[in-house]
Design goal:
Layout: E1 2-6, E2 16-23, E3 29-33, E4 39-46, E5 49-56, E6 63-67, E7 71-78, H1 81-85, E8 98-101, H2 116-132, H3 139-148, H4 156-163, H5 167-177, H6 182-193, H7 195-199, H8 212-223, H9 227-232, H10 236-243
Antiparallel strand pairs: 1-2, 2-7, 3-6, 4-5, 4-7, 5-8
Helix pairs in contact: 3-4
Length: 247
């Protein structure tokens, strides 16, 4: 199995967490996707043949996926702000689901399975040019997501005060665009931030949690199991989520 990431640069960092590549061996593999506060555009190949393009919603619960042998995926992990400004569409309709996209979307099917760097460079250029033609981007939203994806995003009330945007308006925006309120999303982001500690066998919250019971409750809700069992049964997908740099 191989897995690697390339980080975006410049203004794209407001919309993209990373570009990533995955490939398995001759054997079929099963992975568990854990909620991490992002959504993905995934191009899938069987051998060198392009077989499909799909967009995921935000995951709020664990999902098992089975990948046939000789599968390669070239993908983009997006921050939530990308839904409105890059896709110009809500993603609440695909919450915890995936949606097939036409192969010519963003010309993705033109990229070869073995050319990850070309995929990153081409899509980066395309999206950077696209952003230049957007209208003005709401500075409150830019600041809000910058804070949310930081190590210590704070509470709904604190975020509202920091970006000068009422919590009621923020929640309306989140529900319309993504299908859940801000408070729920903050729980997902906070739980995701604990994956790195859990992967190292640390079952006591390092940040964001006031007590052990609250920590265990959230981990169970978003991963389907306790921190200790998650560590004992961690799979490849969990390791990728937990060992890369947070944020």
């Amino acid at each position: 199995m191989r897995y690697r990431e390339i980080k975006p640069s410049g203004f794209l960092t407001n919309f993209i967490k990373c570009f990533w590549e995955y490939g398995n061996s001759e054997a079929e593999t099963v992975h568990t996707i854990l909620p991490d506060g992002y959504f993905d555009l995934i191009a899938e190949y069987r051998g060198t043949t392009f077989v499909g393009l799909r967009l995921t919603g935000v995951w709020t619960k664990p999902a098992n996926v089975t990948l046939p042998a000789e599968t390669t995926m070239l993908a983009i992990r997006f921050k939530l702000l990308a839904a409105e400004y890059l896709f110009q569409h809500e993603i609440k309709s695909i919450l915890d689901e995936t949606k097939q996209l036409p192969p010519d979307f963003w010309n993705v099917s033109h990229y070869q399975s073995h050319a990850f760097e070309n995929f990153v460079a081409g899509i980066s250029t395309q999206l950077t040019n696209s952003i230049k033609h957007l209208g003005e981007i709401d500075s409150r939203k830019l600041k809000l997501f910058e804070l949310i994806y930081s190590d210590t995003p704070g509470s709904v009330k604190e975020l509202s005060e920091n970006v000068y945007w009422s919590s009621r308006q923020i929640n309306r925006y989140f529900n319309q665009q993504f299908g859940f309120p801000l408070k729920e999303f903050l729980k997902i982001v906070r739980c995701k931030s604990s994956y790195n500690d859990i992967s190292k066998g640390n079952f006591f919250p390092q940040k964001g949690y006031f007590d052990q019971a609250h920590f265990i409750k959230d981990v169970r809700k978003y991963t389907g199991t306790t921190p200790r069992k998650l560590y004992q049964n961690k799979n490849d997908r969990f390791l990728q989520l937990s060992t890369r740099k947070q944020g």
